[in-house]
Design goal:
Blueprint lengths: L1 H23 L3 H11 L4 H17 L7 H18 L7 H17 L7 H21 L6 H30 L3 H24 L1
Helix pairs in contact: 1-2, 1-7, 2-7, 3-4, 3-5, 3-7, 3-8, 4-6, 4-7, 5-6, 5-8
């Protein structure tokens, strides 16, 4: 059931990407789609997206892991539209870097009870920062193809995180808490490094 729901989220994101590609044809639309596909590969975005997948498998109730990626994707596209319209926040890139630290802390605490609503709220809040950053860099060629691209890439990165989370749960079993803690510490350290680079 859990895998079926995850597939639905990914399928919806990929269909959005294909719809954008179908409308892109050649020239400007294709360019904006390709920019969208490539944009989430920045280290801060990449780490956050994979972490959401790992956390969702590790912390959410059985069969509900799809809710983490779904919350991230929904908040991401809504805030990206705001960013494309000119909405921004001071020190936005610093906030994006700190969101990586947040996800690291969430992984460290993943084996301890946390209300799902709080965890999903934190995921959506962090996604909003990433979305504003994406939206602020919308190419002149248009938002639709660009958004379809970054949504498709984001969904695929979530799936890779879900796969990593499932592997940890299956192959490490009794040591999964240690593995998640170590992964969370590495993620938090990477986020602090990224923040330090911006603050320097």
């Amino acid at each position: 059931m859990q895998e079926k729901n995850i597939r639905r989220v990914v399928a919806a994101a990929l269909l959005a990407g294909l719809a954008g590609a179908a409308q892109a044809h050649t020239g400007h639309g294709t360019h904006s789609l390709m920019e969208g596909l490539a944009h989430p590969f920045g280290l801060d975005h990449l780490l956050a997206m994979v972490a959401v997948g790992v956390w969702s498998v590790s912390a959410l109730p059985q069969g509900k892991a799809w809710q983490g990626p779904a919350a991230f994707l929904a908040a991401l596209v809504a805030s990206a539209a705001l960013g494309a319209a000119g909405v921004t926040l001071p020190f936005l890139e610093h906030g994006v870097a700190l969101s990586v630290v947040l996800f690291g802390a969430m992984l460290v605490l993943a084996r301890r009870p946390m209300p799902a609503s709080i965890g999903l709220g934190l995921v959506a809040a962090a996604a909003s920062l990433h979305g504003l950053a994406h939206g602020a860099e919308t190419p002149a060629t248009g938002f639709a193809g660009y958004a379809a691209g970054f949504l498709a890439t984001t969904a695929l990165m979530h799936i890779s995180g879900v796969g990593a989370g499932l592997a940890i749960r299956r192959w490490l079993a009794e040591r999964s808490g240690v593995a998640l803690g170590g992964l969370g510490a590495l993620l938090g350290g990477a986020g602090l490094y990224l923040f330090g680079q911006l603050a320097a």
